[in-house]
């Protein structure tokens, strides 16, 4: 069975992509990619597919499980998981040259497709309403 499992992360959202040989189906939490909400961010997921070219996806089935985070971070986690999944699949089961070509295309377009964003939410401290803001000071 030719299959690879990769993950994508953004803030608290984690997406796990399972890529195997098939007939070009992409499902997210069991639903087809077309039903992904919000509508505006759907194109962000399509970016990974459009950059590499749909011919490379024709022989692959991709199943993505995603949880945690909000709508936007989930979409960014999904696109990263899909992009990393294709690169890993081509490296393992096709050849190094086509993997390098795909990887270069993705990195040239947007590095966050393959490299996770390390920024995290800073914890709240005492003496204020948030991480950095302090309570207002009054003199009388």
Spans of at least 5 consecutive residues with low confidence: none
Percent helix among the residues?
25-40%
Distance N to C terminus: 74 Å
Number of helices: 4
Strand order of the largest sheet: 1-2-5-3-4
Strand content: 15-25%
Which features characterize this protein?
alpha+beta, five-stranded mixed sheet
What features would you describe in this structure?
37% of the residues lie in helices and 21% in strands. It contains four helices and five strands. It is elongated.
In short:
The protein is an alpha+beta fold.
Give the SSE map.
Elements: E1 3-10, E2 13-21, E3 26-28, E4 31-32, H1 42-52, H2 54-57, E5 60-67, H3 71-93, H4 96-109
Parallel strand pairs: 3-5
Antiparallel strand pairs: 1-2, 2-5, 3-4
Helix pairs in contact: 1-3, 3-4
